[in-house]
Amino acid sequence: MVTAVISDLHLGTRTKRDLLARPKVRETLLGELESVDQVVLLGDSIELRDGPLSEALATAAPFFEDLGEALSGRRVLLVPGNHDYQLASCWLARRAPRPLALEELSAPRQGDPLDRLAGRMSGTELVLAYPGVWLGPNVYATHGHYLDCHNDVRTFECLARALVERVTRSPSNGYRTPDDYEAVLAPVYKAIYRVAQSRRARHAAQAGKAAVRWWERLNGYRGPRGRPGVGAMAQVLDRLRIDADYVLFGHLHRAGSWRVERETTLLNTGSWIDGDTPYRPGTCVFVRENGPPELRQVL
Predict the structure, then answer these.
(1) Orientation of helix 23-32 relative to helix 53-71, angle to 10°
(2) pTM for the full model?
């Protein structure tokens, strides 16, 4: 069993830096996936913060069509992140109030956003997985957006999370279950998504986003030494008691591996965004039944 994991495609981003929207780049990636048994899209696969949902899905459709054809009946697991959180919204509403486990799998239903893409995948099974998925007895994968609850960097989302903590009187050290993280982060994601669906609000937000990016660079989040968060991700593992030898995550757009407490190795899957960070895009992690996961530069 071989699983390929990629993250942070941001298909449909307003900047047009989404590499996998380009046919030649897709062809390169799909060539690497010929012999795998399944593919995991580990969060922020589709950019749902830059425009209406329908437009984002239409932009992402060619990638999903090509992926479905290349895999020819095999399986794709999609794990939503913070930028495509709404792909899980219908399912999350249906499952309440049952506690959220570390791995929940669900097939898209008619009317779900993912159902529009599942129908384009030539018989390849598309499965929603949230908030993560076990890829073996000792390998866990999740997008990594929960780390923002432990990140002290002054990004917009970390500041918004702190505001929600204050309003809801949620203790900053009180995260113990996935539902604890969802209670604080979901309101932030839903508010950002609602803004993206309104043209008037979206134009104002895009102007504000430029100021936010400038602020993040000023505070060291973007740049050659930016994108901290490995320590915060280690806190997520500790709080959720994720007992794994390897934990794959995205979110930081910084491909690499780090050894943390509990003898766990964190592997960041990088991104497929051109010029987003000083780190080279176009990476993929291959997980096999035996041996450690392999982080490979595809582009």
Answers:
(1) 40
(2) 0.91
